[in-house]
Amino acid sequence: SRSAFGASVAGGRRAFFGWLTGAAKEKKASLMHREDGSLIPMLESPIPGVQKLAQQYAAHGQGCGNCRHPLIYSCPKSGFPSHCCEVCYNEDKTHQDYAPKLREVYADLVDLRSGRKFPEFEFPGPPAHEWQRSELLNWRAYLSDRRFNGQDSVIGNARTEEELEREAQSIRHISSVFTFPLTIAHAIYWAKVLGDPSRLDQKKDEEGNKLPWRIA
Ligand SMILES: [Zn+2]
Ligand SMILES: [Zn+2]
After folding, report:
1. Which ligand neighbours the alpha carbon of 64 most closely?
2. Are 151 and 164 in contact (CB under 8 A)?
3. What contacts 99, CB < 8 A, 6 or more positions away?
4. What is the pLDDT of residues 64-100, one digit of tens each?
5. Which of 56, 145, 180, 210 sits 20 to 30 Å CA-CA off 48?
6. Which residues of 102-119 are buried (b: 16+ CB within 10 A; e: fewer)?
7. Which helix (H) or strand (E) holds 82?
8. Could you write out the three-class secondary structure of 167-205?
9. Residue (of 206, 173, 170, 201) closest to 186 by Cα position
């Protein structure tokens, strides 16, 4: 709520910086990694919700192409149950292309269930002034303009590689919540300007330059 956000601006914001320190960081890592540093397959996740999703994926996924065996082999890079066996895994050359993205999906699922605090979901209220309008060109710019919280700080403040990685994760969490409502709000706003929401591809800025019609 707005009052909650107001309070966090006054007092709590600095507390967001580096709150995930030492033990908490280690605990979060241990939800995905064994003591030897290897990735825990999703099917063996200590988080029941993640394990269940992996079981559903293994039952319905078709990672092996033509082969119709259940996916009981877990990719060591992504943690996903990706193939029926190691032979199929090694023969699949395309899997390596999207393994990093799957690894990211796995990390996001774990993060959402890690029990950490989620300053991301303490949303800012409406803009302080009617004239404050933020363009929906990309998520980072939009969430930074509107002063949404990431897990360490306000979105847009990340500098180090590690901070940028966590900020990107926060942006993925927030954008997954806002994609639909913001798409509708965006269409309503531009429908007023363009007279017809089906003409969203004809958006122009004040100088008459064409604006991208999708949020990146
Ligand atoms: Zn994989
Ligand atoms: Zn197979």
Report:
1. 2
2. no
3. 75, 77, 78
4. 777 878 899 999 999 999 999 999 999 998 999 999 9
5. 180
6. bbebbbebbbbebeeeeb
7. strand 81-83
8. HHHHHHHHHHHHHHHHHHHHHHHHHHHHCCHHHHHHCEC
9. 201
Estimate the crossing angle of helix 95-112 against helix 48-60, to 10 degrees.
150
pLDDT, tens digit (0-9, with 9 covering 90-100), for 189-200: 777 777 776 776
Instruction: Report the distance separating Cα 80 and Cα 39, nearest Å.
Output: 10
Spatial CB neighbours of 106, under 8 Å, sequence gap ≥ 6: 32, 42, 50, 78, 79, 80
Distance (Å) from CA 198 to ligand 1 centroid:
39
Instruction: Point out which residues pair with 154 in neighbouring strands.
Output: 149
How many whole angstroms from its chain centre is CA 176? 7
Q: CA nearest 42: which of 33, 124, 167?
A: 33
DSSP 32: T
Structure tokens at 205: 């800025």
Tell how far the Cα of 25 is from the centroid of ligand 1, in angstroms: 24
Q: Say what the ipTM of the complex is.
A: 0.72
What's the gap in Å between 85 CA and the centre of ligand 2? 6
* Distance in Å, CA 44 to ligand 2 centroid: 20
